[in-house]
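can u do me a favor
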């Protein structure tokens, strides 16, 4: 057995306490101090917290897959007249359903301070109210709603103007409903 001297306290201590410890000759590491024990325990807690956080993050994407749609916003160089327009004399907002890929496209064609909202029902989504998707991105923005409707499904939709902040639809601006098969 060998005898070594090891400093117990860091340089911040007013007087560093020196301890004489007996260390077996095969082990040449300083003894574990109370500080080392706390640091090791803290590392274990951080590792556990990190693992728990990773487990939560691993579950979050699964919660998003239950959503009925995915959204993409692009900007166009000018107005677009879709299959349905708001108002009969003005097309401040328009919408079209694209069968290939089941995309509902919603355009804001005017810088009028209103958002464009599409209200719809789908064969694969139940409920007592319409589903609403808002294009609140400004003039010439196109909202692409990737619907993923089953091939034997359908959609019935209309396009309106509205106030995105309060989620109020201006009913007098709505088009008539348009029914389309997804297949």
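np, heres the sequence
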């Amino acid at each position: 057995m060998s005898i070594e001297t090891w400093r117990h306290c860091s340089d911040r201590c007013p007087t560093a306490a020196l301890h004489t410890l007996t260390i077996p000759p095969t082990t040449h590491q300083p003894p574990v101090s109370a500080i080392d024990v706390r640091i090791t325990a803290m590392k274990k807690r951080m590792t556990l917290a990190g693992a728990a956080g990773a487990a939560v993050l691993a579950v979050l994407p699964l919660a998003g897959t239950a959503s009925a749609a995915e959204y993409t916003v692009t900007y166009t160089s000018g107005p677009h007249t879709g299959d349905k327009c708001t108002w009969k004399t003005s097309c401040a907002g328009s919408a079209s359903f694209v069968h290939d890929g089941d995309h509902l496209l919603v355009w804001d064609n005017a810088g009028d301070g209103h958002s464009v909202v599409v209200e719809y029902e789908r064969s694969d989504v139940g409920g007592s109210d319409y589903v609403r998707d808002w294009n609140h991105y400004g003039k010439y923005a196109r909202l692409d709603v990737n619907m993923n409707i089953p091939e034997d499904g359908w959609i019935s939709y209309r396009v309106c103007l509205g106030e995105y902040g309060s989620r109020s639809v201006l009913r007098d601006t709505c088009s008539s409903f348009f029914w389309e098969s997804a297949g």
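The CA atoms of residues 72 and 144 lie 5 Å apart. hope that helps!!
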